[in-house]
Design goal:
Elements (H helix, E strand, L loop, with lengths): L6 E17 L2 H10 L2 H8 L14 H8 L4 H8 L9 H18 L12 E17 L2 H10 L2 H14 L4 H8 L4 H8 L8 H22 L3
Antiparallel strand pairs: 1-2
């Protein structure tokens, strides 16, 4: 039999780097968003959930529009932008600009942020390292997923979608263990509807159910 490739848990640590750019008004946000680096766009969209922000929003742009500008309609439109629906950062950037342009067309004079509440454009330097935890079967994976750091859940569930187009967990379950059904359940978890800890809970429950089914099948 072919030897099963273990799942190796990794985590990422993000070091924040300022771009030196900031915006106080929506028009300034639009101008800066058009020219800021793709790394900054990535930081403020894909990496939003690693920051532990409110789930009412799905990216830093929407968060700032809702909390600092109090433009709730705009924040809702920006929150509807799914970064995983775009092939590259530039397409995502254009969609963000289109949403802002549409809002400015209807509301040409939105309010300004108060001093201290400006939008600061940042980038991240991401460092990835193994945790020293590996799983060769569902039981070992179940234990690991319960206790690994939240940064590992982010790396394998969110960041992997940028690298592979699919999360690492479901890919390993399907490719290495041939667990297609449980892989599909995990793949179907909406990343925008849950916090990282809720993602962990859903994955744990899916694996636990599969382990229970296996045990019942052998009379345990």
């Amino acid at each position: 039999m072919e030897e099963i490739r273990p799942f190796e848990f990794k985590q990422c640590v993000n070091l924040i780097k300022s771009t030196g750019m900031r915006a106080r008004t929506l028009r300034e946000l639009r101008e800066r968003t058009a020219v800021v680096s793709s790394e900054s766009i990535f930081h403020h969209t894909y990496q939003y959930f690693l920051k532990g922000h409110a789930l009412e929003y799905t990216n830093d742009f929407a968060h700032w529009a809702g909390e600092s500008l109090e433009e709730r309609a705009l924040s809702e439109h920006l929150s509807n932008v799914d970064p995983y629906a775009f092939k590259n950062i530039e397409d995502l950037r254009m969609e963000l600009l289109n949403v802002i342009d549409g809002y400015l067309k209807n509301f040409p004079e939105p309010r300004e942020a108060m001093p201290g509440d400006e939008f600061y454009f940042n980038e991240t330097v991401t460092l990835t390292s193994p945790l020293g935890i590996k799983a060769k079967n569902l039981a070992e994976f179940l234990i690991a997923i319960k206790y690994v750091d939240a940064a590992a859940i982010y790396y394998h569930f969110y960041e992997a979608r940028v690298r592979l187009g699919v999360d690492d967990f479901s890919k390993w379950l399907e490719d290495s263990l041939d667990k297609k059904e449980v892989a599909e359940r995990i793949r179907g978890i909406d990343p925008f509807m849950h916090s990282i800890e809720e993602i962990r809970k859903h994955i744990y429950e899916s694996i636990e159910e599969e382990v229970r089914t296996e045990m019942e099948a052998v009379g345990l």
